[in-house]
Amino acid sequence: AQSVSQHNHHVILSEAASLELGCNYSYGGTVNLFWYVQYPGQHLQLLLKYFSGDPLVKGIKGFEAEFIKSKFSFNLRKPSVQWSDTAEYFCAVNPQTGANNLFFGTGTRLTVIP
Amino acid sequence: DSGVTQTPKHLITATGQRVTLRCSPRSGDLSVYWYQQSLDQGLQFLIHYYNGEERAKGNILERFSAQQFPDLHSELNLSSLELGDSALYFCASSVGLGEGLGNTIYFGEGSWLTVV
After folding, report:
1. DSSP state of B104
2. A1 vs A46: which has the higher pLDDT
3. CB-CB neighbors (< 8 A) of B105 in chain A
4. Is the predicted pLDDT of residue B100 greater than 50, yes or no?
5. How far, CA to CA in Å, does B3 sit from each of A47, B11, B26?
6. Which of A51, A20, A41 is nearest to B37 (CA)?
7. How would you class A6 by CB atoms within 10 Å of its CB: exposed for 0-12, middle for 13-18, buried for 19 or more?
8. Could A100 and B96 be called an inter-chain contact, meaning their C-beta atoms sit closer than 8 Å?
9. Beta strand pairing call for B106-107 and A4-5
10. How far is the C-alpha of A112 from the C-alpha of A36, rounded, in Å?
11. Which residues are paired to B29 by β-bridges?
């Protein structure tokens, strides 16, 4: 079945540590890829997106993600996390099947310890 | 602020009841989407409307229905509510339909529904 997988359910890091959150998808064909962040009690905010071109995408707040087509992956990275990055992170895929809909992974909760 | 407005922010209701959640998309956006976020199901796509017409259905129960009005606002109607319907319901909007145009979907703050 088509799906979006985020294997890390909960990640705990100390401030200044580097972050990498995994995202794999199983949709074939052309896809658009997104990472959203949800801070406690807030709505989903777009961190970054990939549609085409350079597979290394830079987003807001120092986040970046790399699209590796051969691995069906779109991992999120940040070289040095801050306490304020504590949130839930969702990977999402738009499979470009003719409808502009997002299919989300189950999310990864990031806790950054000061 | 994403520009997508949802009301009410919180709602508590009893089983068997019916509620309506309202969404105003960002100015200029023709597409409206509804998503449900629950602890056990995660974030799930429910339904998509574009310029008043239904475009796609996801995991939406038959007890749920939605519509998009001529002014582009949308309502999600949830009826015969069950305890398991307790969730955060997000509305989102985008300019168009996507299909390679790179439309980004922007989310509202959500409506918390608690069914007791």
Report:
1. P
2. A46
3. 34, 100, 102
4. no
5. 16, 21, 5
6. A41
7. buried
8. yes
9. unpaired
10. 17
11. none
Q: How far apart are CA A75 and CA A68, in angstroms?
A: 9
Asked if A91 and A73 count as a contact pair (C-beta separation under 8 A), the reply is: no
The full length of chain A comes to 114
Q: Write the pLDDT tens digit of every residue in B21-36.
A: 999 999 999 999 999 9
Token representation of residue A65: 């993600």
The amino acid present at B87, given as its one-letter code, is A
Length of chain B: 116
Average pLDDT, integer, range A37-57: 90
* Per-residue tokens: B94: 């985008």
Q: How far apart are CA A31 and CA A94, in angstroms?
A: 6
Give the three-state DSSP class for A84: helix
Helices and strands (H and E) in chain B: how many: 0, 11
Smallest Cβ distance to B98: which of A90, A94, A105?
A: A94
Contact A94, A63 (CB under 8 A): no
Task: Retrieve residue A59's tokens.
Answer: 């987003």
Percentage of residues of chain B with pLDDT beyond 90: 75
Q: Do A99 and B48 touch (CB under 8 A)?
A: yes
- Structure-token match 């998503």, residue found: B35
For A92, name the nearest residue in chain B, comparing CA atoms only: B43
| pLDDT of residue B47 exceeding 50 | yes
